[in-house]
Design brief:
Elements (H helix, E strand, L loop, with lengths): L1 H5 L3 H20 L5 H18 L9 H19 L40 H5 L2 H12 L3 H12 L4 H8 L3 H25 L1
Helix pairs in contact: 2-3, 2-4, 3-4, 4-8, 6-9, 7-9
Length: about 200
């Protein structure tokens, strides 16, 4: 595929666009507040692919290289537009869900553990309302958390791919993913409790 792209084979390029356009758009939406801006970021990324294809050496997968271009274009655009996103990091799980450190039997263990959502959870989790809630919960995360959870849980990228795309250490990627998943789960818990 890479060789065909480097030969400027239109069919190969059309196949790559078909395969990656939607995932690239979802990733661009992590940075852009509108669909139109995200589409522009993806268009800029495709131009970057065309300009940089001859320099692609295959040290990472094509997908990793492609997503890195999207991230770079999106970050450049955000900086150029002077957009700032507040970065508030608190604990991933509220402290009151844990026993105090001086508990005689179970210090710092769960006081209120996550509970099972039961057998009907699949149905509830797949409803449009719940999917919209998940999208909203992801949208409310810090940029770094949105990047990681979008790549890992929406696009299915491996931990190694995410680290390469975003330039993160494995530890940082794990922490960001844990915090993001914890916040999305908390939103889901509140939603399911209300059903």
């Amino acid at each position: 595929m890479i060789a065909a792209l480097k030969r400027r084979d239109e069919a190969a390029f059309a196949e790559v666009v078909t395969r990656y356009q939607r995932p690239m758009l979802r990733l661009a939406l992590v940075y852009a507040k509108s669909h139109a801006v995200a589409e522009e970021i993806v268009q800029e990324a495709w131009l970057g692919v065309l300009r940089g294809l001859d320099q692609f050496e295959g040290r990472s997968s094509f997908k990793t290289w492609l997503f890195r271009i999207v991230v770079n274009r999106a970050k450049t655009r955000s900086e150029r537009e002077g957009r700032t996103i507040p970065f508030s990091e608190g604990p991933a799980v509220p402290a009151e869900r844990f026993l105090p450190s001086d508990d005689p039997e179970w210090p710092l263990h769960w006081a209120v553990p996550p509970r099972s959502w039961g057998a009907a959870a699949d149905e509830r989790l797949q409803s449009r309302e719940t999917l919209a809630l998940i999208e909203g919960a992801i949208a409310s995360l810090s940029t770094a958390q949105r990047e990681v959870i979008t790549l890992r849980d929406v696009e299915g990228a491996s931990s190694e791919e995410v680290c390469n795309i975003l330039g993160l250490t494995e530890t940082n990627q794990r922490v960001l993913l844990h915090r993001a998943r914890s916040r999305v789960r908390a939103a889901l818990e509140r939603h399911i409790d209300d059903l």
